[in-house]
# Entry
Amino acid sequence: MEQQSDPTNPKNCHINIHAKSDDSKEGHSAEVNEDTQEPKSFLENVFGSVQSICRSAVIKVAKSGPVPRHIAFIMDGNRRFARKRKMALRNGHAMGFEKLRETLDWCLDIGVKMVTVYAFSIENFKRPKEEVDTLMELSKEKFQQLLRKNDLIQKHGICVRVLGNISLLPLDLQKIIAKMTLVSRDNTKAVLNVAMPYTSRHEISQAVSDVSKGIHDGLLHSSDINEELLERCLYTGEDPYPDLLVRTSGEVRLSDFLLWQGGYSCLVFEDVLWPEFSFWNFVWCLLKYQRNYPSIQEQIKKLHQTRKQKNLESDCSSLGVVPENISYETDPRLWRIKNDREARQNAFVRSLYAQRMEFYEKLINDQGV
# Structure
């Protein structure tokens, strides 16, 4: 049995974008069966209460282990779900949006602070125009609903961002995204990243292009280029890697999603269509992550050690010395090179972020929202 929305609960301001307004009549608040739209029976209510208690207990147990900071979802299977249920394609995608709302509730309940979802690939523009138009309209509706809850988003510190080449989207949707990004950009308690229209290849090539321009403009030196810099120039910026990456529908591929960031994620491929993804599927994914947590952390530790060694070797090469029995702490010349490089990198990343925000501001100021 679903609990009534509490406007003081941060998960409701972030997720429950379908909540009724305060002036809704109390006489229409009876719970109904989602499939039949008939009032729930006594047994259904009892079963729902037991299920809610079980979920709370499972969440409590899961939180005793390592909890992912960042979960990414490839929400696959809306179209197949619609065909399976013999419903209109739009309804399948609409139910996919509703499943996202529900899944975000679970993430907040368990303590996940960041979620990234693959909402629309650049490749999806090759689908039939009617389907693309439907997805754009649904996206517009959902972002508008989020904007209407801006007071709660601000109160509870929710940051909503869109990752991708938004210039490919319809202008009205671009403007809504721009406003949503700007009004929530300083919030830090929880983050929802919506990847649309996105591919990892485009993201990486854009980062390389930005760095190349930075060198051309004199903001960077060619010796400043390293993995850390390119990583910070991706759409995800300073975000932590996804600890857990889940794909539904039974497909075992990443479809050009977070290829750089997901290199050290726990990958889980669930053989269930996205609208059918259940709380128990979600828990199973968490258990797989917790089981693999030690080995994942060890690999990430090795990654940082390798990067540190590569930077040391590069800096030693610029001084013409061998990187043996030497460190940044023992050689002031190396320390200076490292500090100067990081200062240029930090200034460049800040300027890149400012450019992206200026793009949104210009979009709003020039076109209006």
Remarks:
- Strands lie at 70-74, 114-118, 158-163, 190-195, 244-247, 266-269.
- The radius of gyration is 23 Å.
- The longest helix spans residues 279-319.
- The chain has a mean pLDDT of 88.
